[in-house]
Amino acid sequence: MKRNRREMSRRAVLGSMGAAAAASLIGPRLASAALEGVLKKAIPATGELLPAIGMGSWITFNVGDDSDLREARVEVLRAFFDQGGAVIDSSPMYGSSEEVIGYCLARLDNTQPLFSATKVWTPLQWHGVRQIETSQTLWGTARFDLLQIHNLLNWEGHLETLLDWKAQGRVRYIGVTTSHGRRHEDLEKIMAAQPIDFVQFTYNVLDREAEQRLLPLAAERGLAVIVNRPFRRGALFDRFADRPLPEWAGECGCANWAQLFLKFIVSHPAVTCAIPATSRVDHMLENMGAAYGRLPDPNMRARLIRYIETL
Amino acid sequence: MLPFTKDVFFRLLAHYNAAIWPAQIVAVALGIVVVILIFKPRRGSDRFIAAVLASAWVWVGAVYYMTHLVTINWAAWASGVLFVGQGGLIAWTGTLRGRIAFRAGPDSTSRIGLSLVAFALLAYPLAGSLTDLGWSRAPVAGIASGPTTLLTLGLLLLADGRVPIRLLLIPVLWSLVAGAAAWLLRLPHDLILPVAAIAAFWLALIGNRRLVLGAKKNA
Question: Does B75 touch chain A (CB under 8 A)?
Answer without folding.
Answer: no
